[in-house]
Amino acid sequence: MIKRTLVLAAAVSIFSMPVKAQNFGLERPLSTVEVPEVSPAAPDLSSLSAEYAEFFSALNSYSNTAFMAPQGSPEAMQASAAGQYLRGRVEELGARIKALGGSVPSVPATRGASFSWRVSSELNDVFGFGGPAGRSAAPGVEIRAGYCRINFVKEGVPFLVQSDRFLKKGEVIITFDDGPGPLTEEVSAAMKANNAPSVFFVLGSKLNAAGKARVKAEAADGNFPGVHGYWHATENGKPLTAYSTAKILDQLGGVSDSIKSATGAKPVFFRPPYGIITPDALKALSSDLGLVPVGWTIDTLDWSTKDPEALFEKTVSMIKQRGKGIILMHDIHPQSRTAAKRLAAWLAENGYKVVSPERLAEAYRGE
Questions:
Q1: For the chain, domain boundaries
Q2: Alpha helices in 201-263 (DSSP H)
Q3: How many CA atoms lie within 13 A of 100 on its CB side?
Q4: Does domain 163-365 have CATH number 3.30.310.50?
Q5: What are the pLDDT digits (tens) for 165-219?
Q6: What is the pTM of this model?
Q7: pLDDT tens by residue, 274-300
């Protein structure tokens, strides 16, 4: 008992002494000693390749759904939005794999819609497609009768639904999204050469000096630069529903100003990334910024394939089936560049008329 008391007393005495850096063999006081941060381990090629395979399989599945579902149906709209996002993720992962000296893996085509938890969770976070089961969609909102409306599809996600009833049979309007990029000027010049004035919906994040020069060239070719977003639509790929209406107005107003500074004219048209936007935000963009909303009635799904021949044939098939329409493509993909150039010539040779995008503004305003 005496020994334990002495030991305890000695311990109390030691720990009650003033603590100095020298007691621990340190050159500086404890409060100034910096503990180096340990960075998380960088993903290796194996884990990146596995992640690539997961997202590519989901992209393939959504591509199949988008092609099989009727154009404009809730299934088609959801699949197209998810597919566009997944294409970006697949390209990002592929670039990271190449940066580490690896090769992008070949992923076999699969059937069905069985996604990994990682993919499903990410898509739910971005779009909100995975909300509580059984939730009913809210009624749609008419924006302009006979022109466009907002439909609430899976889990209440608001999609812009475009009408083309103001077009006559054989009339088409061509639109491009997500530029400007290195291919934009070639596509723009091809539209001019084939008397096919088109709308190019641009991203403000790409309007550096080179981007503004490309937008200026679009306008000089007789095309119409339009507002798409600053990002697509937020920096991490979420739709504009992630922002308040006030923030959307502020951000897209800045994009509109950038386009005007490049072309000398205020843009007229706006298309929400993924086609997703609330009725209130859409109405505010129209009233406050004077922008005419534009959707599409023929989605070429050009993000879903890298084969320009297959893309061209599929697009021609959809045009023949519908007889007219507002065509959606992207001027940032090589396959789209090639197919669009062929398409503009094919339309002229086969009795179709590419009408001025001004028809969109006239229809929206009831002129």
A1: 45-107+116-127, 163-365
A2: 209-220, 245-263
A3: 16
A4: no
A5: 999 999 999 999 999 999 999 999 999 999 999 999 999 999 999 999 999 999 9
A6: 0.85
A7: 999 999 999 999 999 999 999 999 999
